[in-house]
Amino acid sequence: MYTYRARETLLTVVVGELLVQLGLMPVVAVIPGLSTALGVGPTEGAWILTVFMLALAGTLLVCGRLGDLLGHRRVFGWGALVYTLGSLLAGLAGGLEMLLLARGLQGIGAAMVSGNNLAILSGAMPAAHLGKAVAVITTAASLAAVVGAALGTAAIAFGGWPLLFWSTAPLGAWAAWRARRLPGLPDGCAPVSVDWAGAALLVGTLSLVAVALNHPHTTTREAVMPLFHAGLPALAIVTAGAFVIVERRIRVPLL
């Protein structure tokens, strides 16, 4: 049986994983209607989903490592707050540009949460029950993905597209509040200095690769396409090399 604290931790981690799924599936279901409401085409509207995914993928590894260095509870809590801020700003967005910025914040917040979920769970769960706890999280995430499409459609139908994003803000705020009760750093451990230069270079490298692999074709002039096909990959190689150099010279490397 789980202890009371283990059950609390599991519930908080499940909610954190729900935030990630609710940032994805409801938006997938309503991109055509959302694009029309914003007065943009479906290709531009697809970036409302793509920006979230790029921010999530580009920062996930760094956020997990920051949890190792600063404490998984701290990064999880701040991530839930960042996600909540992004949700509120998304609902207030007056145009596509502001909405994309807010979605980027949501993606970073989701990475801060998701990148620390399993580490938090491992520190709170008895080893004999860890597999079952992971299965609970996976099941909850799968259900959220299935239900998310219906929730997105309902939000658009009953409250307009801002409700699609505002509806996740209370959940994010609750997760941030609950984070203070999550397990902290192990006894005898203390936060250490972070290789912020390495973190910036790693995020930059991953983001460049992600954008190069997910660039728009139908709305980009042919003359600009070499930037995505050659320019961004070349720049990613440069930033990756700089990251390796920085990591070899620092006492506590990011990786």
Overview of the structural elements:
With 255 residues, the protein is mostly helical. It has eleven helices and no strands. The chain starts with a helix and ends in a 6-residue tail after the last helix. The relative contact order is 0.17. The mean pLDDT is 81.
Spatial separation of the terminal alpha carbons: 36 Å
Helical percentage: over 70%
Q: What is the overall pLDDT average?
A: 81
Give the number of helices. Answer: 11
In terms of quaternary structure, the protein is single chain
Rounded radius of gyration (Å): 19 Å
Order of helices and strands: HHHHHHHHHHH
How many beta strands in the DSSP annotation?
Answer: 0
User: What is the percentage of strand-forming residues?
Assistant: under 5%
- Given helix and strand content, the structural type is mainly alpha
Shape: flat
Describe the main β-sheet briefly: none
Low-confidence stretches: none
